[in-house]
Design a protein that fits this description.
Chain lengths: ~325, ~170
């Protein structure tokens, strides 16, 4: 005799399967969201911490400084964004760390803003260990510290000027930067100075003989520089980021000039007129600097920079 | 009579399940609340620690800051008092330092009251940023320098001071 009744699938079973399914779905959804939020929070904290770790690299009396390598627990991406809006623009950093499962790097939604920092790097850098070094930008007073960041990519400088070679040799030993006349490691980013060689990723052309002025050509775009601090900036960053940072730097230089102008009034009142003559120079400088929004216009302030430097050197009460 | 009894047993089962479901939802809700509060505490602690680290690093390097550093002579850890006095009235700089509090205190010779261009040096503090309540403001000793004397015969005078800063958290 066969049992023709079969398996009894009552209401209790259907209800349990339905509710169980809903609970499992909700649990998976909650865990996925939790992991995503936790990861995002960790990445935001990492970006803030990364910025804090780069504060000691800023210079006081030095002409250049190297930060200890910054090592992330896992392979990470650093997104470097520059925005021109506001009194001084803003630098935004966000970090995306690799989890090893699912999507390797999640697109960061939240970034950490820095109003008084200038980081130069490609818009996205990837790696586990990051290196940074800095140089002050003096025009003629110190405007800010330029911080150059790079990750796992290798830079090879071909025939750089003596000063650049000395400086890089001194501070960047074994830090993914090599100096070579012609033997660059394979897959390195080749930075050529003076004349264009085959397979140059970045070309630095000097203006009228002096290496302190010129043009850096990267991704078929020209970036004008004045001084080695800006030359490194152009080499290590994307052209869009460089142009944006130039505008931010000039806004800050303009504000600083106004502070120095007011300082000259304060000092002059206390010291029978010492420094009063510089007030107008600072005002002119501030006006011109505030109008510069791209590297091509840097030339327009050169005269005022020299003028201010000479006037300040002649003073007994130096303003800067 | 039999069908009525069956029906009430079924209803009882549904009621039991409903109660179990409600109990489970309350249980999961409580677990989620406890987890969220632990997580919030963790984030708060982390934020406070980041704020403090930020402020400590900043005051350690404040003399290198273009707006405050004294650059007329080669001087390590020196603040330009004249620039600080001018800076405190600059509205463009609000939010620039990413700090909730930034104050320079004259330690020796000491003074009382807030400094301005008009009353300096007969005063005690220069408050540059004071935007909200903060828990602690670490400080660091610095030299407060300025040019003194006449137009041709002058000298750079430095006094002992302290710089206090409290960092702002994540946005």
């Amino acid at each position: 005799m066969k049992n023709k009744k079969g398996f009894e699938f009552g209401f209790g079973w259907i209800f349990a399967i339905f509710v169980g399914g809903v609970i499992i779905f909700l649990a998976i959804y909650a865990v996925t969201n939790l992991v995503k939020t936790e990861r995002q929070g960790q990445d935001v904290a990492s970006a803030k911490e990364f910025g804090i770790l780069l504060t000691p690299v800023e210079t006081s009396l030095e002409t250049g400084k190297l930060a200890p390598p910054i090592i992330f627990p896992s392979k990470s991406r650093i997104y470097n964004i520059c925005e021109r809006e506001g009194n001084f623009g803003v630098q935004r950093l966000s970090v995306s760390s690799s989890l090893g499962i699912g999507e390797q790097f999640q697109q960061p939604d939240i970034s950490t803003p820095f109003y008084n920092k200038y980081f130069f790097s490609p818009s996205v850098i990837e790696g586990k260990t990051f290196y940074a070094f800095s140089k002050p930008l003096n025009m003629p007073f110190k405007v800010a510290d330029m911080v150059y960041i790079f990750g796992s990519e290798n830079y090879c400088f071909v025939s750089p000027p003596g000063e650049v070679e000395d400086e890089l040799g001194r501070i960047m030993v074994n830090k993914n930067i090599s100096i070579s006349a012609n033997d660059c490691p394979v897959e390195s980013i080749k930075v050529c100075f003076g004349n264009s060689e085959p397979k140059c990723s970045i070309l630095v052309s000097f203006d009228s003989g002096t290496p302190e002025k010129g043009i850096v050509t990267k991704n078929k775009q020209n970036m004008v520089y004045e001084g080695y601090a800006l030359m490194y900036s152009a080499i290590f960053s994307d052209p869009e980021l460089y142009e944006c940072q130039i505008e931010r730097l000039m806004k800050r230089a303009s504000s600083l000039a106004l502070i120095y102008k007011q300082k000259s009034v304060v000092v002059s009142a206390r010291t029978d007129g010492c420094g009063s003559a510089l007030g107008e120079n600072f005002a002119n400088y501030a006006q011109i600097a505030s109008e510069i929004n791209q590297s091509k216009s840097l030339d327009s302030i050169t005269f005022n920079v020299e003028n201010l430097r000479e006037a300040n050197d002649a003073l007994s009460c130096k303003m800067f | 009579m039999r069908s009525v009894a069956r029906c009430s047993r079924g209803q009882l089962k549904i009621q039991e399940m409903a109660f179990v479901l409600v109990a489970m939802m309350i249980f999961f809700g409580l677990v989620a609340l406890i987890f969220a509060s632990i997580n919030m505490n963790k984030i708060k602690t982390e934020t406070a620690s980041l704020r403090e680290n930020d402020a400590r690093e900043l005051i350690r390097k404040i003399s290198g800051n273009s707006e405050l550093g004294f650059t007329a002579i080669s001087c390590s850890n020196c603040i330009d008092v004249d620039k600080a006095l001018v800076l405190k009235d600059q509205r463009a700089y609000s939010g620039f330092f990413n700090l909730d509090y930034l104050m320079i205190e004259r330690v020796f010779p000491s003074g009382k009251g807030e400094c301005s261009v008009g009353n300096f040096p007969n005063c005690g503090t220069i408050t540059i940023v004071n935007s909200s309540n903060f828990l602690s403001a670490p400080y660091s000793y610095v030299s407060l320098c300025r040019y003194e004397g006449s137009r041709d015969k002058g000298y750079y005078k430095c006094e002992l001071g302290r710089i206090h800063a409290a960092g702002r958290g994540l946005e």
